[in-house]
Amino acid sequence: xxxxxxxxxxxxxxxxxxxxxxxxxxxxxxxxxxxxxxxxxxxxxxxxxxxxxxxxxxxxxxxxxxxxxxxxxxxxxxxxxxxxxxxxxxxxxxxxxxxxxxxxxxxxxxxxxxxxxxxxxxxxxxxxxxxxxxxxxxxxxxxxxxxxxxxxxxxxxxxxxxxxxxxxxxxxxxxxxxxxxxxxxxxxxxxxxxxxxxxxxxxxxxxxxxxxxxxxxxxxxxxxxxxxxxxxxxxxxxxxxxxxxxxxxxxxxxxxxxxxxxxxxxxxxxxxxxxxxxxxxxxxxxxxxxxxxxxxxxxxxxxxxxxxxxxxxxxxxxxxxxxxxxxxxxx
Length: 331
Ligand SMILES: Nc1ncnc2c1ncn2[C@@H]1O[C@H](COP(=O)(O)OP(=O)(O)OP(=O)(O)O)[C@@H](O)[C@H]1O
Ligand SMILES: [Mg+2]
Known about the structure:
Bound molecules: adenosine-5'-triphosphate, magnesium ion
Order of helices and strands: EEEHEEHEHHHHEHEHEEHHHEE
Strand order of the largest sheet: 6-7-8-3-9-10-12-11
Number of helices: 11
Distance between the termini: 28 Å
Strand content: 15-25%
Helix content: 25-40%
Structural class: alpha/beta
Shape: globular
Radius of gyration: 21 Å
């Protein structure tokens, strides 16, 4: 990866505010600012992870990139092409380069189709393996099954006959069917047993090495994030507060929120004393976020300025690949 190369995905100033319909004679509810001005890029073959507390806007960001929810404003460019202005049909065509896998593959796999048909379906829909190429399609399904570690006989089974790990492998096989350039992974291993998690994470990494796929990877588990990511973006209440390459972020976090988040991760070297910092209070509501720095109500370093002025996400002097960006008045 070189920093001069245009990124595969570039997201700028992305906003998604959920509004509820105005009810007669009732005051309008404030919009939920789930994602509020998020910018990042993902290079070809790179894994960028999004981390942060529940409700900080990771899934909304992931779905906005795919236009599974329609962003309120901003820009999402794939290979320089703006996705947010594409017609539904053009967007459908572009989706072959852009796939998603979810935490619960069961919810996203059609229970009435066999596993083989589930994987063949995108190929049929896009026609590039279609027409008289049924045999070719079948062959590719078999190849995809073997590539994700499923036995050929599994093609005849239905989703409910699979274990959680196998179902996620099936979801991955389907995502791979059209040779995507980017796969958005929303908590893909969070529901799996630890040993199965490792297998699926390693599978994703092998597939990346083989096919040069980029991942936008959403996860709670920082050990998984540390293993799989090239770069990591930390979100707090709809904002990105820090982005850096994985090693820099885990060894020299700058934002107080990142420090607290990482202090909860077990230290690999048992001789280094664990230094667990605690996050105080509940996250504020995204319908009524704090003024200035959104983290100031829970930040141990907060000063008067933090309440008044929104800190810009700006680059700090560093040797970090892609730069080390932080939004804090004091770091
Ligand atoms: N369809 C929706 N309508 C209204 N509010 C929503 C909707 N989807 C999400 N939200 C709200 O937007 C905020 C961000 O939610 P999101 O699901 O993106 O968070 P997340 O970081 O993925 O959380 P988790 O780690 O729990 O999956 C939350 O406050 C959530 O309640
Ligand atoms: Mg989520």
